[in-house]
Amino acid sequence: xxxxxxxxxxxxxxxxxxxxxxxxxxxxxxxxxxxxxxxxxxxxxxxxxxxxxxxxxxxxxxxxxxxxxxxxxxxxxxxxxxxxxxxxxxxxxxxxxxxxxxxxxxxxxxxxxxxxxxxxxxxxxxxxxxxxxxxxxxxxxxxxxxxxxxxxxxxxxxxxxxxxxxxxxxxxxxxxxxxxxxxxxxxxxxxxxxxxxxxxxxxxxxxxxxxxxxxxxxxxxxxxxxxxxxxxxxxxxxxxxxxxxxxxxxxxxxxxxxxxxxxxxxxxxxxxxxxxxxxxxxxxxxxxxxxxxxxxxxxxxxxxxxxxxxxxxxxxxxxxxxxxxxxxxxxxxxxxxxxxxxxxxxxxxxxxxxxxxxxxxxxxxx
Length: 366
Fold this sequence. Notes:
Blueprint: E1 4-13, E2 16-26, E3 31-35, H1 42-50, E4 57-62, E5 65-66, H2 72-75, E6 77-80, H3 92-102, H4 107-121, H5 136-148, E7 154-158, H6 166-183, E8 186-191, H7 194-200, E9 203-208, E10 211-216, H8 218-223, H9 228-233, E11 240-249, E12 252-256, E13 259-261, E14 280-285, E15 290-294, E16 303-314, E17 317-324, E18 327-333, E19 342-347, E20 353-355
Helix pairs in contact: 3-4, 3-5, 4-5
Protein backbone atom coordinates (compact mmCIF):
# COMPACT_ATOMS: atom_id res chain seq x y z
CA UNK A 1 0.00 0.00 0.00
CA UNK A 2 1.08 3.59 -0.52
CA UNK A 3 -0.05 7.17 -0.27
CA UNK A 4 -0.03 9.16 -3.52
CA UNK A 5 1.03 12.80 -3.65
CA UNK A 6 0.97 15.12 -6.65
CA UNK A 7 3.06 18.24 -6.31
CA UNK A 8 2.60 21.13 -8.74
CA UNK A 9 1.58 18.84 -11.60
CA UNK A 10 0.93 20.53 -14.95
CA UNK A 11 -0.03 18.70 -18.14
CA UNK A 12 -0.09 20.06 -21.67
CA UNK A 13 -0.73 18.33 -24.98
CA UNK A 14 0.93 20.71 -27.42
CA UNK A 15 -0.69 24.08 -26.77
CA UNK A 16 -3.66 22.55 -24.94
CA UNK A 17 -3.45 22.94 -21.16
CA UNK A 18 -5.21 20.08 -19.35
CA UNK A 19 -4.44 21.21 -15.80
CA UNK A 20 -1.95 23.51 -14.11
CA UNK A 21 0.06 23.24 -10.87
CA UNK A 22 -2.25 20.64 -9.38
CA UNK A 23 -1.59 19.51 -5.80
CA UNK A 24 -3.29 16.44 -4.37
CA UNK A 25 -2.76 14.00 -1.50
CA UNK A 26 -4.35 10.53 -1.49
CA UNK A 27 -3.90 8.78 1.84
CA UNK A 28 -2.56 5.25 2.27
CA UNK A 29 -5.43 2.75 2.11
CA UNK A 30 -7.97 5.34 0.99
CA UNK A 31 -10.72 4.82 -1.58
CA UNK A 32 -10.30 8.09 -3.45
CA UNK A 33 -12.49 9.10 -6.38
CA UNK A 34 -11.81 11.68 -9.08
CA UNK A 35 -15.24 12.84 -10.23
CA UNK A 36 -16.10 15.16 -13.08
CA UNK A 37 -17.76 15.58 -16.49
CA UNK A 38 -16.27 14.21 -19.69
CA UNK A 39 -13.22 16.15 -20.84
CA UNK A 40 -12.37 17.65 -17.44
CA UNK A 41 -8.95 15.91 -17.26
CA UNK A 42 -9.70 13.14 -14.76
CA UNK A 43 -8.52 10.21 -16.94
CA UNK A 44 -5.35 12.12 -17.89
CA UNK A 45 -4.70 12.63 -14.19
CA UNK A 46 -5.14 8.90 -13.55
CA UNK A 47 -2.76 8.08 -16.42
CA UNK A 48 -0.14 10.36 -14.89
CA UNK A 49 -0.48 8.58 -11.54
CA UNK A 50 -0.17 5.26 -13.39
CA UNK A 51 2.92 6.30 -15.34
CA UNK A 52 1.17 6.00 -18.72
CA UNK A 53 1.65 9.76 -19.18
CA UNK A 54 4.44 11.99 -17.87
CA UNK A 55 3.59 15.39 -16.41
CA UNK A 56 4.81 18.44 -18.28
CA UNK A 57 5.84 19.88 -14.91
CA UNK A 58 5.64 18.74 -11.30
CA UNK A 59 6.34 15.51 -9.43
CA UNK A 60 4.51 12.40 -8.24
CA UNK A 61 5.34 10.58 -5.02
CA UNK A 62 4.30 7.16 -3.72
CA UNK A 63 4.90 7.54 0.01
CA UNK A 64 8.26 9.37 0.03
CA UNK A 65 9.49 7.84 -3.26
CA UNK A 66 9.63 10.10 -6.31
CA UNK A 67 8.07 8.01 -9.11
CA UNK A 68 7.67 10.80 -11.66
CA UNK A 69 9.80 9.12 -14.30
CA UNK A 70 9.18 5.48 -13.38
CA UNK A 71 7.19 3.06 -15.57
CA UNK A 72 3.88 1.56 -14.39
CA UNK A 73 5.68 -1.70 -13.55
CA UNK A 74 8.32 0.12 -11.51
CA UNK A 75 5.60 2.02 -9.66
CA UNK A 76 3.83 -1.29 -8.90
CA UNK A 77 0.33 -0.19 -9.86
CA UNK A 78 -2.55 -2.24 -11.24
CA UNK A 79 -5.08 -0.66 -13.58
CA UNK A 80 -8.62 -1.71 -14.46
CA UNK A 81 -10.11 -0.09 -17.56
CA UNK A 82 -13.61 0.59 -18.83
CA UNK A 83 -13.03 -2.10 -21.47
CA UNK A 84 -12.20 -5.28 -19.60
CA UNK A 85 -9.05 -5.96 -21.69
CA UNK A 86 -9.23 -9.71 -21.12
CA UNK A 87 -7.41 -12.20 -23.32
CA UNK A 88 -10.22 -13.86 -25.30
CA UNK A 89 -8.32 -17.11 -25.97
CA UNK A 90 -7.51 -17.66 -22.28
CA UNK A 91 -9.68 -19.14 -19.55
CA UNK A 92 -10.69 -17.12 -16.50
CA UNK A 93 -7.98 -18.96 -14.56
CA UNK A 94 -5.29 -18.03 -17.08
CA UNK A 95 -6.46 -14.41 -17.32
CA UNK A 96 -6.22 -13.99 -13.56
CA UNK A 97 -2.95 -15.92 -13.35
CA UNK A 98 -1.25 -14.02 -16.18
CA UNK A 99 0.61 -11.42 -14.02
CA UNK A 100 2.06 -14.17 -11.83
CA UNK A 101 3.13 -16.23 -14.85
CA UNK A 102 4.91 -13.17 -16.23
CA UNK A 103 6.77 -12.91 -12.92
CA UNK A 104 7.87 -16.53 -13.20
CA UNK A 105 5.96 -17.77 -10.15
CA UNK A 106 5.79 -21.53 -9.64
CA UNK A 107 2.65 -23.48 -10.50
CA UNK A 108 1.71 -24.23 -6.89
CA UNK A 109 1.85 -20.56 -5.87
CA UNK A 110 -0.16 -19.52 -8.93
CA UNK A 111 -2.85 -22.14 -8.18
CA UNK A 112 -3.15 -21.02 -4.56
CA UNK A 113 -3.29 -17.31 -5.43
CA UNK A 114 -5.86 -17.73 -8.21
CA UNK A 115 -8.05 -19.80 -5.88
CA UNK A 116 -7.76 -17.11 -3.21
CA UNK A 117 -8.76 -14.32 -5.58
CA UNK A 118 -11.55 -16.40 -7.13
CA UNK A 119 -13.05 -16.95 -3.66
CA UNK A 120 -12.95 -13.23 -2.90
CA UNK A 121 -14.72 -12.38 -6.18
CA UNK A 122 -17.08 -15.35 -6.38
CA UNK A 123 -15.45 -16.78 -9.51
CA UNK A 124 -14.68 -20.30 -8.28
CA UNK A 125 -17.18 -21.94 -10.66
CA UNK A 126 -16.09 -19.91 -13.69
CA UNK A 127 -12.35 -20.60 -13.81
CA UNK A 128 -12.54 -22.86 -16.90
CA UNK A 129 -14.71 -20.52 -18.95
CA UNK A 130 -13.50 -18.04 -21.54
CA UNK A 131 -14.48 -14.34 -21.57
CA UNK A 132 -17.10 -14.80 -24.33
CA UNK A 133 -18.99 -17.18 -22.02
CA UNK A 134 -19.26 -14.58 -19.24
CA UNK A 135 -21.68 -11.77 -18.47
CA UNK A 136 -20.49 -8.17 -18.26
CA UNK A 137 -20.38 -8.26 -14.47
CA UNK A 138 -18.41 -11.51 -14.48
CA UNK A 139 -15.89 -10.11 -16.97
CA UNK A 140 -15.41 -7.06 -14.79
CA UNK A 141 -14.75 -9.28 -11.78
CA UNK A 142 -12.14 -11.20 -13.79
CA UNK A 143 -10.45 -7.91 -14.71
CA UNK A 144 -10.45 -6.97 -11.03
CA UNK A 145 -9.05 -10.39 -10.14
CA UNK A 146 -6.15 -9.95 -12.53
CA UNK A 147 -5.34 -6.66 -10.80
CA UNK A 148 -5.79 -7.98 -7.26
CA UNK A 149 -3.54 -10.99 -7.70
CA UNK A 150 -0.55 -8.72 -8.21
CA UNK A 151 -0.96 -7.21 -4.70
CA UNK A 152 0.02 -3.77 -6.06
CA UNK A 153 0.81 -0.67 -4.04
CA UNK A 154 -2.05 1.23 -5.72
CA UNK A 155 -5.18 0.18 -7.64
CA UNK A 156 -6.24 2.54 -10.45
CA UNK A 157 -9.77 2.13 -11.84
CA UNK A 158 -10.88 4.13 -14.89
CA UNK A 159 -14.69 4.11 -15.21
CA UNK A 160 -14.76 0.32 -14.69
CA UNK A 161 -18.55 0.04 -14.34
CA UNK A 162 -19.73 2.25 -17.19
CA UNK A 163 -20.35 -0.66 -19.58
CA UNK A 164 -22.68 -2.43 -17.14
CA UNK A 165 -26.45 -2.07 -16.89
CA UNK A 166 -27.96 -0.23 -13.92
CA UNK A 167 -28.59 -3.34 -11.79
CA UNK A 168 -25.07 -4.69 -12.32
CA UNK A 169 -23.52 -1.30 -11.58
CA UNK A 170 -25.20 -1.24 -8.17
CA UNK A 171 -24.16 -4.84 -7.52
CA UNK A 172 -20.54 -4.17 -8.53
CA UNK A 173 -20.40 -1.04 -6.38
CA UNK A 174 -21.21 -3.20 -3.37
CA UNK A 175 -18.56 -5.73 -4.38
CA UNK A 176 -15.93 -3.02 -4.85
CA UNK A 177 -16.67 -1.60 -1.42
CA UNK A 178 -16.46 -5.03 0.18
CA UNK A 179 -13.23 -5.71 -1.72
CA UNK A 180 -11.61 -2.50 -0.54
CA UNK A 181 -12.57 -3.25 3.04
CA UNK A 182 -10.98 -6.70 2.88
CA UNK A 183 -7.80 -5.64 1.02
CA UNK A 184 -7.18 -2.22 2.54
CA UNK A 185 -5.23 -1.16 -0.56
CA UNK A 186 -5.15 2.41 -1.87
CA UNK A 187 -7.69 2.78 -4.68
CA UNK A 188 -7.89 5.73 -7.06
CA UNK A 189 -11.17 5.59 -8.96
CA UNK A 190 -12.24 7.76 -11.91
CA UNK A 191 -15.90 8.26 -12.84
CA UNK A 192 -18.39 10.79 -14.17
CA UNK A 193 -21.19 9.09 -12.18
CA UNK A 194 -21.77 11.00 -8.95
CA UNK A 195 -23.88 8.17 -7.48
CA UNK A 196 -20.88 5.82 -7.79
CA UNK A 197 -18.57 8.38 -6.23
CA UNK A 198 -20.90 9.03 -3.31
CA UNK A 199 -21.47 5.33 -2.63
CA UNK A 200 -17.85 4.16 -2.83
CA UNK A 201 -15.51 6.89 -1.70
CA UNK A 202 -13.73 7.86 1.47
CA UNK A 203 -13.02 11.18 -0.25
CA UNK A 204 -13.90 12.73 -3.60
CA UNK A 205 -12.03 15.27 -5.73
CA UNK A 206 -14.48 17.04 -8.04
CA UNK A 207 -12.86 18.35 -11.22
CA UNK A 208 -14.06 20.76 -13.87
CA UNK A 209 -12.00 22.10 -16.76
CA UNK A 210 -8.77 20.82 -15.20
CA UNK A 211 -9.36 22.44 -11.81
CA UNK A 212 -10.20 20.60 -8.58
CA UNK A 213 -13.29 22.42 -7.38
CA UNK A 214 -13.55 20.65 -4.02
CA UNK A 215 -11.94 17.72 -2.24
CA UNK A 216 -13.73 16.15 0.69
CA UNK A 217 -15.86 13.34 2.05
CA UNK A 218 -19.15 12.49 0.30
CA UNK A 219 -20.99 14.24 3.14
CA UNK A 220 -18.89 17.39 2.78
CA UNK A 221 -19.34 17.78 -0.97
CA UNK A 222 -23.09 17.08 -0.70
CA UNK A 223 -24.04 19.13 2.36
CA UNK A 224 -21.37 21.85 2.07
CA UNK A 225 -20.59 22.31 -1.64
CA UNK A 226 -17.75 24.76 -2.23
CA UNK A 227 -19.37 26.45 -5.22
CA UNK A 228 -22.26 26.36 -7.67
CA UNK A 229 -20.59 23.79 -9.92
CA UNK A 230 -20.21 21.26 -7.10
CA UNK A 231 -23.72 22.02 -5.82
CA UNK A 232 -25.32 21.22 -9.16
CA UNK A 233 -23.01 18.38 -10.22
CA UNK A 234 -23.50 16.34 -7.04
CA UNK A 235 -27.03 15.21 -6.25
CA UNK A 236 -29.94 13.91 -8.30
CA UNK A 237 -32.12 15.78 -9.00
CA UNK A 238 -29.59 18.61 -8.84
CA UNK A 239 -29.85 21.52 -6.45
CA UNK A 240 -32.35 24.28 -7.23
CA UNK A 241 -30.67 27.65 -7.78
CA UNK A 242 -32.45 30.99 -7.89
CA UNK A 243 -31.39 34.60 -7.46
CA UNK A 244 -32.78 36.50 -4.49
CA UNK A 245 -31.98 39.49 -2.27
CA UNK A 246 -30.86 40.03 1.31
CA UNK A 247 -33.40 42.08 3.22
CA UNK A 248 -31.67 42.03 6.60
CA UNK A 249 -28.19 41.06 7.77
CA UNK A 250 -28.54 40.67 11.53
CA UNK A 251 -30.19 38.27 11.77
CA UNK A 252 -29.73 37.22 8.16
CA UNK A 253 -33.02 37.19 6.25
CA UNK A 254 -33.59 36.71 2.53
CA UNK A 255 -36.65 37.16 0.37
CA UNK A 256 -38.24 34.29 -1.53
CA UNK A 257 -41.41 35.45 -3.26
CA UNK A 258 -43.90 36.04 -0.44
CA UNK A 259 -41.76 34.26 2.15
CA UNK A 260 -38.96 35.53 4.33
CA UNK A 261 -36.28 32.91 4.89
CA UNK A 262 -33.73 32.90 7.71
CA UNK A 263 -30.81 30.59 6.82
CA UNK A 264 -29.63 28.69 9.89
CA UNK A 265 -26.21 27.53 8.63
CA UNK A 266 -24.55 30.87 7.81
CA UNK A 267 -22.12 31.84 10.59
CA UNK A 268 -21.75 35.28 12.13
CA UNK A 269 -18.58 36.81 13.55
CA UNK A 270 -14.99 36.22 12.45
CA UNK A 271 -15.27 32.76 10.96
CA UNK A 272 -13.12 32.01 7.92
CA UNK A 273 -14.70 31.54 4.53
CA UNK A 274 -16.48 33.43 1.81
CA UNK A 275 -18.26 36.42 3.35
CA UNK A 276 -21.55 37.95 2.29
CA UNK A 277 -20.62 41.18 0.48
CA UNK A 278 -23.56 41.80 -1.86
CA UNK A 279 -27.30 42.36 -1.52
CA UNK A 280 -28.04 39.86 -4.28
CA UNK A 281 -27.28 36.19 -3.64
CA UNK A 282 -27.92 32.84 -5.29
CA UNK A 283 -30.17 30.70 -3.12
CA UNK A 284 -29.56 26.97 -3.37
CA UNK A 285 -31.90 24.33 -1.98
CA UNK A 286 -31.98 20.60 -2.70
CA UNK A 287 -35.30 19.10 -3.84
CA UNK A 288 -35.53 16.85 -0.76
CA UNK A 289 -35.23 19.91 1.52
CA UNK A 290 -38.51 21.37 0.27
CA UNK A 291 -41.64 20.05 2.00
CA UNK A 292 -45.00 19.99 0.21
CA UNK A 293 -48.06 21.09 2.17
CA UNK A 294 -51.35 20.64 0.33
CA UNK A 295 -53.75 23.58 0.21
CA UNK A 296 -53.96 27.12 -1.09
CA UNK A 297 -53.58 29.13 2.10
CA UNK A 298 -50.18 30.29 3.29
CA UNK A 299 -50.04 30.59 7.05
CA UNK A 300 -46.86 32.16 8.31
CA UNK A 301 -43.99 33.81 6.50
CA UNK A 302 -42.15 30.56 5.77
CA UNK A 303 -44.74 29.09 3.38
CA UNK A 304 -44.97 29.80 -0.33
CA UNK A 305 -47.79 28.94 -2.73
CA UNK A 306 -46.81 26.86 -5.76
CA UNK A 307 -48.50 25.21 -8.74
CA UNK A 308 -47.53 21.66 -9.67
CA UNK A 309 -46.62 21.45 -13.38
CA UNK A 310 -44.97 18.02 -13.80
CA UNK A 311 -45.11 14.83 -11.72
CA UNK A 312 -42.53 12.07 -12.25
CA UNK A 313 -43.15 8.90 -10.18
CA UNK A 314 -39.92 7.37 -8.85
CA UNK A 315 -41.12 4.34 -6.92
CA UNK A 316 -41.58 5.38 -3.29
CA UNK A 317 -41.36 9.09 -4.09
CA UNK A 318 -42.44 11.65 -6.67
CA UNK A 319 -40.22 14.21 -8.39
CA UNK A 320 -42.28 17.36 -8.89
CA UNK A 321 -41.65 20.44 -10.96
CA UNK A 322 -43.49 23.33 -9.36
CA UNK A 323 -43.85 26.96 -10.35
CA UNK A 324 -43.49 29.70 -7.74
CA UNK A 325 -44.19 32.94 -9.57
CA UNK A 326 -41.49 33.03 -12.26
CA UNK A 327 -39.36 30.44 -10.49
CA UNK A 328 -39.45 26.72 -11.35
CA UNK A 329 -38.25 24.31 -8.66
CA UNK A 330 -37.67 20.58 -8.40
CA UNK A 331 -39.27 19.08 -5.29
CA UNK A 332 -39.29 15.53 -3.91
CA UNK A 333 -42.51 14.38 -2.29
CA UNK A 334 -43.60 11.14 -0.63
CA UNK A 335 -47.25 11.92 -1.29
CA UNK A 336 -48.86 11.86 -4.77
CA UNK A 337 -50.11 15.14 -6.24
CA UNK A 338 -51.59 16.01 -9.61
CA UNK A 339 -50.41 18.39 -12.35
CA UNK A 340 -52.21 21.71 -11.99
CA UNK A 341 -52.72 21.25 -8.26
CA UNK A 342 -51.95 24.19 -5.97
CA UNK A 343 -49.81 23.36 -2.95
CA UNK A 344 -47.76 25.19 -0.37
CA UNK A 345 -44.05 24.53 0.00
CA UNK A 346 -41.81 25.04 3.00
CA UNK A 347 -38.03 25.40 2.62
CA UNK A 348 -35.92 23.91 5.41
CA UNK A 349 -33.91 26.87 6.79
CA UNK A 350 -31.14 24.55 8.02
CA UNK A 351 -30.51 23.32 4.46
CA UNK A 352 -30.32 26.65 2.64
CA UNK A 353 -27.14 27.31 0.65
CA UNK A 354 -26.08 30.79 -0.45
CA UNK A 355 -23.64 31.48 -3.27
CA UNK A 356 -21.95 34.61 -4.55
CA UNK A 357 -23.54 35.59 -7.89
CA UNK A 358 -20.18 36.82 -9.25
CA UNK A 359 -17.69 34.02 -8.53
CA UNK A 360 -20.15 31.24 -7.59
CA UNK A 361 -18.41 30.46 -4.27
CA UNK A 362 -20.37 29.28 -1.26
CA UNK A 363 -21.13 32.02 1.29
CA UNK A 364 -20.28 30.72 4.75
CA UNK A 365 -20.44 33.80 6.99
CA UNK A 366 -21.97 37.26 7.25
